[in-house]
Every structure is written in C-alpha cells, then in structure tokens.
Design goal:
Elements lengths: L2 H13 L7 H4 L2 E3 L8 E3 L2 H8 L3 H11 L12 E3 L3 E4 L3 H13 L14 E5 L11 H19 L3 E5 L7 H13 L2 H6 L1 H48 L3 H36 L2 H9 L3 H13 L3 H25 L16 H10 L3 E4 L2 E4 L8 E4 L7 H16 L3 E7 L3 H13 L6 E7 L2 E2 L16 H21 L8 H21 L7 E2 L2 H4 L7 H17 L4 H6 L9 H11 L1 H11 L3 H20 L8 H24 L9
Parallel strand pairs: 5-6, 5-10, 10-11, 12-13
Antiparallel strand pairs: 1-2, 2-4, 3-4, 7-8, 8-9
Helix pairs in contact: 1-4, 3-4, 5-22, 7-9, 7-12, 9-10, 12-13, 15-16, 17-18, 20-25, 22-24, 22-25, 23-24, 24-25
The protein binds arginine.
The site of arginine has 10 residues, from helix 15 and strand 10.
C-alpha cells in the first residue's frame, strides 16, 4: 500500500471544487521531515491561498473540513500548524493493520501492482563486444537490471534488451589484427585473450597515429593560443589598482587552471606516443603501418558490405566473445530477455534511410544524408559520404523494430551521459519519423572515478577491466569473512561457504556502491568505502539482515510459525512506531524509484530502515521483552525488517547472507 498515494487521493477529493487545477497542489502532500510535525504533511494551503486570494489558515481549515481521513489519521481532523501546514499523523491501529497485512503477504509484503501496467523496453548493459568489459559497463548493467526488476515486480510488462555493439569498428580492429598480427598458437589456446590482445595492439597503433597526426598538433596549438591569451593579462597586472587588479587576478587564475588542464592532456598524449616509440617492436609496427586507422575502417566497411572472409571471421569471433561476456553476467546475476545487437539490424539500415528520404525527413548535405532537427544546431547524420551507416541509423532501426515487435509505452536507454546529444537527436528524429506516442527516455549516468577524482583508468591509461574489479572486491570480502569467522569461539564457516559468501558480499558491494549514488553524479570507486561495515553499503545491509537472523536462531524462533499466528502487530514504544512507519513506506519508495528511474531512493530507504532497526533494537529488548505478547510483536517487526531488506536488496540484484 502506497500511503502517500492514498493520502493524495483523499486530498484530491477534498480539493475538488475548491480549486481549478488541484494536481500541482497534491504534490505538496509529502512525508514530513520532522516527526514532531506528524508522519506526513500537506503544504498546499499557502500557495492555494495566494491563488484564491484568501488567508492560508482559512484555506487550510476549509481543506481539513472537507478532508476525509478519519479512518487512517489521528486526530481524525488533522491539526493546522503555523501559517497553514496540515500535519497528518497515522493512527497506530491503522499502522498495525498495515504491518499485519505486510507480514501475511509472503511474496509481496503488501505491495500492490500498478493500477495501469505499461510495457517497458529497457536497453541496458549493451557493451561493445570484442574488447573486454570495463568499469564503465558496471553502471549501465546494474542500474538497468535494478529498474528491470522493480518495474517487473510492480506488474509492468518489462522487456530487457541488451543492444550489443557487435558490428562496429571494433570488429574491423580485430579483423585487421587477425590478418596481420595473429599468434596462431595463442589463438588456439585462448581465443578471447588473443583477440583482446589484438584489439589492444591495433587500437594502440591507431591511437598513436591519430595522436601524432592530429591530437598532438591540435593540443599544442591550443596551448600556444592559451599562453597568448594570458600574456596581456600578466602585463596588465602591474599598472592596475585594487578592484580592477582583483578582477584581472581572478581571470589570470582561471586561465592558468585551463592551461594546467591542457598541459595535463598534453602529458597524457605524449605518454601515449612514448609508449609506442620507446618500445622497439611497437615502434617498428607503427612505422610499417602508417595508415592503420584507414585500414581498420576499410576492414569494417568490407564486413558491412558482406565480404566473405571478413564475415566468416566475424562468425568465428562472436561466439567466444559472447561467452566471455556471459561469464561476467553470470557472476553479476544478470540476464536479458533479448540480446539483439547492432548486427541484428544491419540489413534494415538502407530501408530506414530510404524511408526517411521518401518522407522528406532526410536530405543530402555535403554528400552525407542528414536529418535536420528543429531547434538543434547539428543535424543527425544517418549515412556517410562513403555510404556507411552510423550508430544513429542503427538506433532508428532499433526503435522501429521494438515498436513493431513489443508495442512499448516506454523505451528506457540506460547509457552514459556522454551520449546525451546522441539521444536528444535520436528521440527528436524518431518523433519526426512518427513515433510520437512512445516515451523515449535517456536514463543517463555519470562517470566512475578513481581515488584521484579522475575517470578510473589503469596506470597505462586503459579503462579498468570489469573482471579484475569483481575479483578484487571478492578477494577483499573473503578477508573480511575470514576475519569475522576467526573472532568466533569456534569458526563456523567451511572454506567453500567463506568463498560463496565472499562472492555475494564482494559483488553486492560493487553493485550497491554504484546504485546508492544519484545516477547522474560521478562517484569515486573505493574498495574501502564500498566494503565498510558501517554506512550506506551492501555489507552493512547484509550484516543487518544476518543480525536479525541471529536473533531468531539465538531464541530458537520458528519465525514462519510465529507469522501465521494471526494477531495484530501492536505499536507501543516510540521506537517500534518509528520502525513500523518506515516499514510501511517501502511501497512508496518503489514508486519513487520508478518515477524518475533512480535506484538510489531505494538504497537510501534501506539505509534509513536499518537505522530505525538499530534504534529499535537498542531500545526494545526482544527476547527479554516484558511479556510474551510483546516479544511476539517484536519478533514480527524483526521479521518484516529482514524480509524488506531481502526483497529490497533483491531488487538491486544483491543477495542476502544468513551469516557473515
Ligand atoms: N554499445 C554502446 C556503447 O558501448 C551503447 C549502446 C546503448 N544503446 C543504444 N541503443 N544506443 O557505447
């Protein structure tokens, strides 16, 4: 039961006839920030009074007079505070009832399905295959997976589709590598590793030439320009008096900071160049293949044009690459309803462009075919001068396919914020193309940073590989599990249990750390933080769950049996009430997550629930409760905490552990 929703319905009835457009006022019915002002609060009287030109308290009184909440609130006529706040406090009896309903509902904890279920297609993970999955992929994979699980639980038809990058330049890259640099023996023994080596080698050579040809000279020119801009500032400083001097100094500092950034980029590019030039073999290869960038594009183009040999190579490479990715998905516990990669759409691209042209939506511009979009400077290119199709063309074909096949109400794209412009253009083009009625949403996310606050990279500047991250987190978790177990009088975990629990804690830590940040912000990847036993971490939540289990096993409690003893969960102590109130807010939290696709609302909720539980456990003895009825009550509250954590972590794709 979503209480907020219920209260807003009651307010809707009360406001009906009082004001013309009640909707925006209903949004001002909210959980209250301070328990002294009730459990919920309505702050709509003040702005309504403005609109109606009356006094806020008068309006508040009129609302309260019409408001029918006697069945769920105490007092039945809510109090009006200050200038016109309406404070709503839930009846203890009503709260007990809700808790009982939750307790009896084995699978759903009293959470209803959506009134009007929708069809969602969720596009997430979508890595480019043929190169190892890296740290950036964790975000799309776990955010998408959490949204998938929650939307499905809420009764929506939910379709996950992993839009693999299995047709792009990265294949041209390994095809070129295969043709020129293959180590046959290594390929026979471990094909994926050898393909990765080829990818990295060819990519490094391509980047080297790019850096020499364009990257380096462009940066040098920008640095020179920046220095030139700074010269007059420096010489002007001498002759200036106070206020002007301050301003110029500030400008100077800003310019210096920009210069420092450019110089850092320069150092990085010089490193990249040196990495090849200081290495005799690489240097020789770079010299032998000065046009490697173009050659990679040519191999890609040949693949796209149906070249026999390249196609057979593609068919040979894809299965082992997919297998490697699947290994990671298995460890993460993630699976998809569909995996329709870019290659699936390749023979639909020409007709997409034809159709756009036929409808007058695409036009030639400097040899390329473009869709011009209202209010946007840059057009979206759908076919290049040389005939090649683009990422955007595939995405248009994908929308058409999804609409035809799944008839979605909404398509979610869980993709890095750096692709924002692409999605803005794509959505605008799709709407022009006739897909006006579906919701197209870019669920964008920020960057994973290293401890230095810069995008998380290895020392050599490569993206950090995901597999290694999972290994390291699991290894750290293993140490924690062993240490915990060793402090027991008699250690209770076998080696295989320790390993299994370590994997659950390690993977859980990585997922939770990601999901607990507002998805649009960047965050710093830190094993210490994510595995901390205190704070908003998976380990803390898992610990809390294990602790409740400990209560049951210590008291020899058969909690399933206790649950079926149908008496109400009474609310006596304030800590019991605070915990009970938090528990019944689970439904509200899930609706909040899906309202703007932010799983961090759920982690924040779980963390706060764990806090309420700790306070409760401190204040309200369970086994030593004053009487049997109170003990029974408290056990049921503990049970609800455990089940809420289990279900909540489950939505985030995280396992609970019985002990740790
Ligand atoms: N493969 C792309 C990348 O790694 C992400 C694809 C996202 N989905 C989409 N429909 N464009 O950047």
């Amino acid at each position: 039961m979503n209480i907020l929703h219920l209260l807003r319905q009651r307010f809707a009835a009360a406001l009906d006839g009082l004001i013309d457009q009640p909707q925006s006022y209903l949004d001002l019915v909210l959980p209250s920030q301070d328990p002294r002002f009730g459990d919920y609060q309505a702050n709509c009287a003040m702005p309504m009074a403005k609109e109606l030109k009356k006094s806020p308290r008068e309006i508040a009184a009129a609302i309260v007079h019409r408001l029918d909440v006697a069945d769920l609130c105490d007092p039945p006529q809510p109090e009006i505070a200050g200038p016109g706040f309406i404070n709503l406090r839930l009846k203890d009896g009503w709260l007990s009832n809700q808790l009982m309903k939750m307790s009896h509902d084995r699978d759903r904890l009293g959470i209803a399905s959506a009134d009007s279920p929708k069809t969602y297609v969720i596009d997430y993970s979508s890595p480019n295959v043929a190169k190892p999955m890296h740290v950036g992929h964790i975000r799309s994979t776990v955010i998408g997976d959490a949204l998938y699980r929650i939307l499905r639980f809420l009764g929506h038809r939910t379709i996950s589709d992993n839009h693999l990058g299995d047709w792009g330049t990265q294949f041209g890259t390994i095809i070129f590598g295969y043709k020129h640099f293959l180590d046959v023996e290594a390929y026979r023994e471990a094909p994926v590793e050898e393909l990765c080596r080829l990818y990295k080698l060819v990519h490094q050579l391509v980047e080297y030439h790019d850096a020499k040809k364009t990257g380096l000279p462009e940066l040098e020119a920008r640095i020179a320009e920046q220095r030139r801009e700074m010269e007059p500032l420096a010489s002007a400083l001498d002759g200036l008096e106070k206020p002007e001097r301050k301003k110029t100094q500030k400008k100077m500092r800003q310019a210096e900071a920009r210069l420092a950034e450019l110089e850092e980029d320069l150092a990085a590019i010089q490193d990249r160049i040196a990495g090849v030039e200081n290495h005799p073999t690489l240097r020789a290869l770079a010299e032998s293949y000065p046009d490697i960038g173009q050659q990679v594009l040519d191999e890609t183009a040949a693949l796209h044009a149906g070249d026999k040999f390249n196609t057979s190579l593609w068919n040979e490479f894809l299965p082992p690459c997919l297998e490697a990715i699947d290994g990671i998905y298995q460890r993460l516990g993630v699976s998809f309803n569909h995996t329709l990669g870019e290659s699936f759409y390749h023979d639909r691209l020409a007709s997409v462009v034809e159709d756009l042209k036929a409808r007058g939506l695409a036009t030639e511009s400097e040899g390329a075919t473009c869709v011009f979009l209202d209010g946007m400077d840059a057009p979206m290119i759908v076919q290049k001068k040389d005939g090649a199709f683009l990422y955007a063309t595939t995405d248009l074909a994908t929308i058409a396919y999804r609409v035809e096949t799944f008839q979605p109400d909404v398509i979610l794209y869980v993709v890095d914020h750096r692709q924002s412009l692409h999605f803005e253009q794509l959505f605008a083009a799709a709407r022009k193309w006739g897909h006006e009625s579906i919701g197209l949403v870019h669920v964008r996310f920020g960057t994973v940073l290293g401890e230095d606050g810069k995008p998380y990279k290895t020392r050599s500047g490569d993206a950090v590989e995901l597999e290694g991250l999972l290994d390291r987190a699991t290894e750290r978790a293993y140490q924690i599990v062993c240490e915990n177990d060793a402090t027991r009088q008699i250690p209770i975990l076998s080696e295989s249990e320790r390993r299994r629990i370590a994997e659950q804690i390690g993977i859980g830590a990585i997922k939770y750390a990601d999901l607990s940040h507002n998805r649009e912000s960047d965050y710093i990847f830190s094993y210490d933080k994510m595995l901390a036993m205190n704070g908003n971490t998976a380990a803390y939540m898992q610990y809390c769950y294990a602790r409740v289990n400990g209560i049951f096993s210590k008291g020899d409690v058969d909690i399933d049996a206790s649950r079926s003893r149908g008496d109400a969960i009474q609310i006596g102590h304030p800590a019991e009430r605070a915990l009970g109130l938090e528990l019944v807010r689970f439904a509200e939290t899930l609706d909040r997550v899906v309202a703007d696709y932010r799983p961090n609302h759920l982690t924040a909720y779980l963390f706060s629930l764990a806090g309420r539980f700790a306070e409760f456990y401190e204040a309200c003895p369970v086994h030593n409760a004053p009487d049997d009825a109170t003990r029974h009550n408290r056990l049921l509250l503990c049970d609800l905490v455990a089940r809420t954590i289990q279900l909540g972590l489950g939505f985030l794709g995280i396992d609970v552990v019985e002990r740790m």
